[in-house]
Amino acid sequence: MKIVRYAGLTLVFLFFMIGGISHFTNTEMFVSIMPPYVPFHLEIVYLTGVMEVVAAACLVFLTTRYWSGNFLFVFTIAVTPANVHMWLNPELFPDIDPAFLSIRLVLQVVLLAVIWFSTRIPHEPAVQPLTSS
Question: pTM for the full model?
Fold first, then answer.
Protein backbone atom coordinates (compact mmCIF):
# COMPACT_ATOMS: atom_id res chain seq x y z
CA MET A 1 0.00 0.00 0.00
CA LYS A 2 2.95 2.28 0.69
CA ILE A 3 4.14 2.00 -2.92
CA VAL A 4 0.67 2.90 -4.22
CA ARG A 5 0.56 5.91 -1.88
CA TYR A 6 3.98 7.14 -3.10
CA ALA A 7 3.01 6.57 -6.73
CA GLY A 8 -0.08 8.71 -6.16
CA LEU A 9 1.99 11.32 -4.36
CA THR A 10 4.42 11.43 -7.28
CA LEU A 11 1.55 11.85 -9.72
CA VAL A 12 0.06 14.70 -7.67
CA PHE A 13 3.46 16.37 -7.30
CA LEU A 14 4.19 16.22 -11.03
CA PHE A 15 0.66 17.30 -12.01
CA PHE A 16 0.77 20.46 -9.89
CA MET A 17 4.46 21.29 -10.33
CA ILE A 18 4.27 21.03 -14.12
CA GLY A 19 0.85 22.68 -14.16
CA GLY A 20 2.07 25.53 -11.96
CA ILE A 21 5.12 26.15 -14.12
CA SER A 22 2.86 26.05 -17.19
CA HIS A 23 1.02 29.08 -15.83
CA PHE A 24 4.18 31.04 -16.64
CA THR A 25 5.20 29.29 -19.85
CA ASN A 26 1.72 29.07 -21.41
CA THR A 27 0.02 32.04 -19.78
CA GLU A 28 -2.22 32.89 -22.72
CA MET A 29 -3.86 29.46 -22.68
CA PHE A 30 -4.65 29.71 -18.97
CA VAL A 31 -6.05 33.22 -19.39
CA SER A 32 -8.23 32.00 -22.27
CA ILE A 33 -9.94 29.29 -20.21
CA MET A 34 -10.96 31.59 -17.37
CA PRO A 35 -14.70 32.18 -17.18
CA PRO A 36 -15.64 35.74 -18.19
CA TYR A 37 -17.22 36.49 -14.81
CA VAL A 38 -13.87 36.03 -13.03
CA PRO A 39 -11.94 39.32 -12.83
CA PHE A 40 -8.18 39.86 -13.13
CA HIS A 41 -7.48 36.92 -15.43
CA LEU A 42 -3.74 37.47 -15.85
CA GLU A 43 -3.14 38.18 -12.18
CA ILE A 44 -5.08 35.09 -11.12
CA VAL A 45 -3.19 32.90 -13.60
CA TYR A 46 0.13 34.05 -12.11
CA LEU A 47 -1.11 33.74 -8.52
CA THR A 48 -2.49 30.24 -9.03
CA GLY A 49 0.72 29.23 -10.77
CA VAL A 50 2.73 30.26 -7.72
CA MET A 51 0.24 28.51 -5.44
CA GLU A 52 0.50 25.26 -7.41
CA VAL A 53 4.31 25.28 -7.42
CA VAL A 54 4.57 26.04 -3.70
CA ALA A 55 1.93 23.46 -2.77
CA ALA A 56 3.61 20.82 -4.94
CA ALA A 57 6.96 21.57 -3.29
CA CYS A 58 5.33 21.22 0.14
CA LEU A 59 4.25 17.68 -0.76
CA VAL A 60 7.90 16.62 -0.58
CA PHE A 61 8.11 17.20 3.16
CA LEU A 62 6.19 14.98 5.57
CA THR A 63 5.60 17.91 7.93
CA THR A 64 3.73 19.90 5.26
CA ARG A 65 2.28 17.10 3.13
CA TYR A 66 -1.07 16.85 4.94
CA TRP A 67 -1.78 20.59 4.77
CA SER A 68 -0.56 20.83 1.21
CA GLY A 69 -2.86 17.96 0.32
CA ASN A 70 -5.78 19.75 1.95
CA PHE A 71 -4.94 22.91 0.03
CA LEU A 72 -4.60 21.10 -3.30
CA PHE A 73 -7.89 19.28 -2.70
CA VAL A 74 -9.75 22.56 -2.11
CA PHE A 75 -7.80 24.26 -4.91
CA THR A 76 -8.85 21.55 -7.37
CA ILE A 77 -12.48 22.11 -6.42
CA ALA A 78 -12.00 25.89 -6.74
CA VAL A 79 -10.81 25.63 -10.35
CA THR A 80 -13.77 23.48 -11.34
CA PRO A 81 -15.70 26.49 -12.72
CA ALA A 82 -13.02 26.97 -15.40
CA ASN A 83 -13.33 23.31 -16.41
CA VAL A 84 -17.13 23.50 -16.44
CA HIS A 85 -16.95 26.74 -18.46
CA MET A 86 -14.84 24.96 -21.07
CA TRP A 87 -17.18 21.94 -21.11
CA LEU A 88 -20.27 24.13 -21.54
CA ASN A 89 -18.64 26.30 -24.23
CA PRO A 90 -16.61 23.96 -26.45
CA GLU A 91 -17.03 26.34 -29.40
CA LEU A 92 -14.72 28.77 -27.59
CA PHE A 93 -11.98 26.11 -27.61
CA PRO A 94 -11.94 24.73 -31.17
CA ASP A 95 -8.47 23.22 -30.74
CA ILE A 96 -9.68 20.96 -27.92
CA ASP A 97 -11.76 17.85 -28.59
CA PRO A 98 -15.14 18.24 -26.78
CA ALA A 99 -14.85 14.62 -25.59
CA PHE A 100 -11.64 15.58 -23.78
CA LEU A 101 -13.51 18.36 -21.99
CA SER A 102 -15.99 15.80 -20.66
CA ILE A 103 -13.31 13.30 -19.71
CA ARG A 104 -11.40 16.08 -17.98
CA LEU A 105 -14.24 16.57 -15.48
CA VAL A 106 -14.23 12.86 -14.65
CA LEU A 107 -10.45 12.90 -14.29
CA GLN A 108 -10.78 15.82 -11.90
CA VAL A 109 -12.78 13.58 -9.55
CA VAL A 110 -10.09 10.91 -9.87
CA LEU A 111 -7.45 13.56 -9.13
CA LEU A 112 -9.32 14.56 -5.97
CA ALA A 113 -9.31 10.93 -4.81
CA VAL A 114 -5.59 10.57 -5.51
CA ILE A 115 -4.79 13.82 -3.69
CA TRP A 116 -6.78 12.71 -0.67
CA PHE A 117 -5.37 9.18 -0.56
CA SER A 118 -1.74 10.07 -1.16
CA THR A 119 -1.47 13.00 1.25
CA ARG A 120 -3.07 11.38 4.29
CA ILE A 121 -0.52 10.25 6.84
CA PRO A 122 -1.17 6.62 7.74
CA HIS A 123 -1.49 6.04 11.46
CA GLU A 124 -0.55 3.00 13.42
CA PRO A 125 -3.41 1.45 15.38
CA ALA A 126 -3.54 2.70 18.95
CA VAL A 127 -3.59 -0.82 20.30
CA GLN A 128 -1.69 -3.61 18.62
CA PRO A 129 -3.80 -6.75 18.21
CA LEU A 130 -2.84 -9.68 20.38
CA THR A 131 -1.28 -12.55 18.52
CA SER A 132 -0.85 -16.03 19.79
CA SER A 133 2.60 -17.54 19.69
Answer: 0.86
